[in-house]
Design a protein that fits this description.
Layout (H helix, E strand, L loop, with lengths): L1 E6 L2 E7 H10 L8 E3 L4 H14 L14 H6 L3 H18 L3 E4 L1
Antiparallel strand pairs: 1-2, 1-4, 3-4
């Protein structure tokens, strides 16, 4: 499954479902797809997502992977890199006071 994040003031962001749901939960949302954030709720969601990333920026974000394997851990993409496109989209939406939606 893929999740597409949209807002009128930024290019769409497409993520794998497990990664997208994990980031949605970090924003304080239930992780339901489809879903949305009203413009007024975006600054708080953005702050929660940034705090989660800052708490452990180099953590691999792949819930399906067993990180006991050193090679797998070395090749995984960090939380900071996975979250960056969504953070950019949320910042643009917050600046322009636009809603954000996501769907399959």
């Amino acid at each position: 499954m893929l999740i597409t994040f949209t807002t009128p003031v930024h290019a769409d962001i497409i993520m794998f479902g497990d990664v997208g749901k994990a980031l949605i939960r970090m924003m304080g949302h239930s992780g339901a797809v489809p879903g949305a954030l009203l413009a007024a709720d975006i600054p708080a969601a953005l702050a929660r997502l940034k705090a989660a990333v800052d708490a452990n920026p180099e953590a691999p974000l792949n819930p399906e992977r067993d990180d006991a394997d050193e090679d797998a851990r070395a090749q995984s993409v960090s939380l900071r890199h996975r979250a960056l496109p969504l953070i950019d989209l949320l910042e643009a939406a917050a600046r322009e006071e636009k809603n954000v939606m996501w769907s399959q």
